[in-house]
Amino acid sequence: MESGTSSAPQSAAITFSLRGRPRAIELEAEGLHHPNGARFGGPVYTAYRDITHLASSSRAVWIGTRRSVYVIARRLFVDPHGPEHLVRALLELIARQPGGSAQLARMAQIEETARHVRPLRATWGLLLACAAIYAAQEIGGESVKLVGYFSGPLAADGDWWRVVTGNLLHANAVHLILNLLGLLAIGSIVERALGTSATVCVMAASGLGAMAAAWWSPLPVVGVSGIVFGLLAALLWIEHRYADELPAWWRVPRRALYGTIALSGLISFLPFVALGAHVGGFVVGGLAAALIAPRGLAQRPVAGALRAIAGASAAVAALAVAAAGYDLLREGQFAERHVVRLARLPSATADVLNDAAWMIAIDEKSSPALLENALELAERAADETDHAEPHILDTLAEVHFQLGHRAEAVAAIDEAILRDPDDDYYREQRRRFLGERDPNDRPEFPSPPPAPKPKTPDEDGLSV
């Protein structure tokens, strides 16, 4: 039979014609054959007893089941009203099944849950905080990064706020946009399911887990991606724990979810990405979701303790930003104080020293005295790596060049070229130092080296 004839006998199949493959959705006595919702792959069979929720909109129809959610675009239906007819027919067939009345009652409860959507305060709050901090970076220059990036040695030396601010800073606009898109997409789904207080707790735990796992990172760490990974783990847990309680359009198809996790994991192995922070955020975020909301979705009563933890987390985050701001703005130029401090900090890694020296070298506001301090850091970083890392030698050359030491700059960049003769960036730097290229026309930073070479920082020397 064709779409809309749902009053057919139970033994007859009901067919909804589709454009493309498979050609139709077929409703049988105990289940239906339908597309899996993905561009590739064959049809899927779903028993009516496994359906948890149904919904249709101007764009698609959602079929929520215990094993996944299937999204079928409205444009695929030959009949313009096919999605509505499909939902109606499925509800009638579910009602005929053993236990169908109880199943429909549960679906009605889920539908009621879908109507009570609360504001996404946690997701949008964190998103706006990251955007505001990035605006401060653009206005305040490199000193904002220096005061806030995460470094284990600096955090242990008293800069406790870096455990928080490292999650809020970003290396560049692309880094910010990609992270915020992930935060909005994943955070909104998690917050709808768990509620604002629980989501804030997951975010806080993920951020702490990310920075703890990156404690021994040789590179400074910035970015909210550790929290995004924690939310991704929370989403995975929610999908497997609460699939039968969630509105279909609050869910992500499991193939897409697993694919996102796999792709994100692969990206984490890129040389300039903070793998430890991603792993730490994912593990701790998933554990936090399981611990703080073992039996509750957003519509269930929120424990006072959970609200208190969420409020305390937000207060600590605000206090951390304020502490970083105070350290940045208090008497004396921050960059000079920071360089002097790094010079006396024996636990500072070569990449942390190099990062600070590079930021000072490329900052047009750096004074000659500050550049001299940066030179001390760059020389120490080069010595500690036995002059074997071309990106560290490049920083040493850049500082020399900014100080007017052209011969020393050329000598340092020649060492970098010797270490990495295939990268044109260092040759262009040499041309710049020799006056064959505009001194203000710094070449584009080299692409990250392929594994198994050591990690290479991004343009600002940060692990993201």
Can you tell me about this structure?
Helix content is 57%, strand content 8%. It is an alpha+beta fold. The chain has 3 domains: 14-115, PH-domain like (Roll), CATH 2.30.29; 121-329, Rhomboid-like (Rhomboid-like fold, Up-down Bundle); 334-433, Tetratricopeptide repeat domain (Serine Threonine Protein Phosphatase 5, Tetratricopeptide repeat, Alpha Horseshoe). A hairpin with a 3-residue loop joins β5 (51-56) and β6 (60-65). α8 runs antiparallel to α11 (275-292). The longest helix has 26 residues, at 304-329.
Short description:
This protein is an alpha+beta fold. The protein is built from 18 helices and seven strands. A four-stranded antiparallel sheet has the order 1-2-3-4, covered by helices on one side. Strands 5-6-7 form a three-stranded antiparallel sheet.
